[in-house]
Design brief:
Elements lengths: L10 H5 L1 H11 L11 E2 L2 E2 L1 H11 L8 H6 L3 E3 L9 E6 L2 E10 L2 E4 L8 E4 L3 H4 L2 E6 L3
Antiparallel strand pairs: 1-2, 3-8, 4-5, 4-8, 5-6, 6-7
């Protein structure tokens, strides 16, 4: 599911241009390769990608996924997620992966070596079993 931007036409998006800005910026990088330690459009890792997208929208967040989880913003449960929220995955309370929620159970993220920035369901067996929580970094 790579290539076509998913920007939900929800009331939340219509009333929150900051969320729309995050999703629009993130979608620009669909198909960009995963690069461990990557922080630019030449290649991103998961936390470098969300940090880059946030920075492009005037939002400062830490560089590492676990620091992003414990950094600025408001914690959100699975049921409270809104488009533009960061979603964290890992085990033992440690976030080893982050993506950006786009709505309808989907996130955009830089998955792993050999893959590209793409949309993925957070409800897949792999991600749902590792879901730690969400973080709202916009007002």
């Amino acid at each position: 599911m790579c290539g076509k931007a998913i920007i939900p036409n929800s009331e939340y998006i219509q009333e929150n241009p900051a969320a729309q800005g995050l999703l629009t910026e993130a979608a620009k990088y669909l198909g960009v390769p995963y690069l461990w330690g990557g922080t630019t459009p030449s290649g991103f890792d998961c936390s470098g990608f969300v940090q880059y997208v946030c920075r492009a929208n005037g939002i400062s967040i830490p560089r590492i996924a676990d620091d992003q989880l414990h950094g600025p913003g408001t914690y959100e449960t699975r049921g409270e997620l809104q488009p533009g929220d960061l979603v964290f995955f890992g085990s033992g309370g440690y976030a080893s992966h982050v993506g950006m929620y786009v709505g309808d159970g989907m996130m955009i993220h830089a998955p792993s070596t050999g893959k590209v920035i793409q949309y993925t369901s957070i409800d897949s067996s792999y991600y749902s079993s590792r879901f730690l929580g969400g973080k709202r970094v916009i007002d």
